[in-house]
Specification:
The protein is of the alpha+beta class. The chain has helices at 11-25, 70-78, 103-117, 130-136; strands at 34-39, 46-51, 54-56, 59-63, 80-85, 88-96, 142-147. The chain is built from four helices and seven strands; from the N terminus they run H-E-E-E-E-H-E-E-H-H-E. The radius of gyration is 15 Å and the shape is globular.
Length: 149
């Protein structure tokens, strides 16, 4: 059995992510980025990572461009977390979408964020065919967010 797709970040990616997360934590969102906190499934400690929340037809989504990462595994266990930009913190719960419901979310995500994430989609872009995006869907978990009131 093969391992689920996951592309680990280079040392430069890790450093850039820490800067982007720090900026979001201090109120500076780059193109809509936010810092997500999710409880670690093993440590129980809150883990922080910058994310690109994606809005589609009034819903908010988190897409894992790098695949089945640690934050994805933590999110599956925790069922939710927090999004922060400066002092604004939004608690949320999630539902993971089945692959059959990801096509339009992934296409519009790639339209908005492709300049940053195309390298993680193994040749799939916003201009790829429906079949190509559907074939890539299992490698890129997508979560629908429900913000707690």
């Amino acid at each position: 059995m093969s391992q689920p797709y996951y592309l680990k970040g280079s040392p430069l990616n890790v450093r850039l992510n820490s800067v982007i997360g720090w900026l979001a934590r201090h109120g500076f969102s780059l193109a809509g980025t936010a810092e997500m906190s999710v409880r670690g499934r093993k440590s129980g400690q809150m883990q922080r990572i910058p994310v690109n929340p994606h809005t589609y037809e009034g819903g908010q989504y988190l897409v894992s461009a790098r695949g089945h990462s640690q934050w994805v595994r933590n999110m599956r266990a925790a069922g939710g977390g927090e999004l922060r930009v400066g002092r604004k913190v939004r608690e949320f719960t999630v539902v993971e979408l089945p692959d059959t419901e990801k096509l339009l979310i992934l296409r519009t995500y790639l339209e908005k964020w492709g300049w940053e994430v195309n390298q993680y989609f193994q040749g799939v872009t916003a201009k790829s065919s429906d079949e190509e995006i559907i074939a890539a869907a299992p490698d890129h978990p997508v979560f629908r967010l429900t913000v707690k009131k």
